[in-house]
Amino acid sequence: MKSPFHVMIIPTLGCPSKCHYCWSSDERSPVMSIETVREIAEWLKDYRSDQVTITFHGGEPLLAGAEFYRQALPILSEGLAHLEPTFALQSNLWKLTPEMAGIFAEYNIPIGSSIDGPEDINDTQRGKGYYQKTMRGYEIARANGLEVRFICTFTCRSVEHREEIFNFFLNNGFPLKLHPALPSLRSENPKEWALEPEVYGDLLVYLLDKYLENLGKIEIMNINDLCKCVFTRHGTVCTFVDCMGSTLAFGPDGSIYPCYRFVGMPEYVMGNVYDHPTAEDLAGSDAWKLMHAFKDYVDRECAGCSHIRYCRGGCPYNAITPTDGEIRGVDPHCIAYKRIFDEITDRLNEELYGSADMDMEEFCSPFAGGTKPGIMAILRVMATK
Ligand code: SF4
Ligand code: SF4
């Protein structure tokens, strides 16, 4: 059976924004050349035979400019045609021009962007003027028929305004996908904006309740994924599967990393496309071995956890980079994952086994017979999309 294969191309780590909690941008970063894109396509061609999703990420990938995408997209889509590539882009949209939007539309590229809630909350943590610049890009994207979804980063400060933020997404008709702010490895005070795992767990349970109150009016991607994980007993996003091997990232100079989060950290380079490494060469790198050592560690450490099948210890980046590559624990968000997985499991069990006189239609319907919607209702709404 073919497995999903996700490739991330980081044309640059540079970014025009200065979000206070950012852990990944680098002003001195070079921009990827088209020659490097050619090398990536050439190298990927024989690396795997699975269908590939290619995401342009950063830094800010639009800094590479329209000409980069005009050339890169045909090189990748034609050179990798046998892998049926689909594309995606993660951008703050500040630099989006109608010309670029037209190129992305040709390849039907969905865009993930970032807004942390209403303008004042967003600009407090992402910098003054951010909101307006992103919204300008959003309008250009929409005018060109592009689909845009926003990721909302919750920090220890913005979480105080969780209701306002939820209502912002609800009232604007935006689906909500959230990220907890991570401790910044480049800051002198890494936890200044970070969302503590306990608070993140509370937030997820709060959003589950808000979702159920407003079912059919908003989509909360994380809650969908978490419910799907528990119901199918299988991870459905990279955080909750063994991501090692199913994801690769390319830095601006052609360096190969396990995932975009490691790009720019020399100790996580597994090879470089210009050297045409074989799969065995990558597997021999320290970074690859470390990722696999994390998997073995999770098998041991999480063996007694009832959620291990669909949690898999969380994100290895979160677990191993704060300790300089030493595996001393699983993803610190374990507390949050356990909290929300327990909550969903308990509610699902109560719905399925706790009310013997309730029929299946009632379990599943978000609105039937005055029954309060529950986890099955979320799953049903997802299934009908
Ligand atoms: S390292 Fe973390 S963010 Fe990267 S693919 Fe793995 S789980 Fe996802
Ligand atoms: S919830 Fe925590 S203990 Fe359970 S599998 Fe996930 S990381 Fe491991």
Automatic annotation (TrEMBL):
Residues of the 4Fe-4S ferredoxin-type domain: 291-325
This protein's record includes keyword Metal-binding: yes
Keywords: Iron, Iron-sulfur, Metal-binding, S-adenosyl-L-methionine
A GO molecular-function annotation: metal ion binding
Necessary cofactors: [4Fe-4S] cluster
SUPFAM superfamilies per UniProt: Radical SAM enzymes
InterPro entries: 4Fe4S-binding_SPASM_dom (IPR023885), 4Fe4S_Fe-S-bd (IPR017896), Aldolase_TIM (IPR013785), CHP04083_rSAM (IPR024018), rSAM (IPR007197), rSAM_sf (IPR058240), SPASM_CteB-like (IPR047602), Sulphatase_maturase_rSAM (IPR023867)
Domain annotation Radical SAM core: ranges: 1-213
NCBIfam families per record: rSAM_more_4Fe4S, rSAM_pep_methan
Similarity comment: Belongs to the radical SAM superfamily. Anaerobic sulfatase-maturating enzyme family.
Name of the protein in question: Radical SAM protein
Organism expressing this protein natively: Methanoculleus sediminis
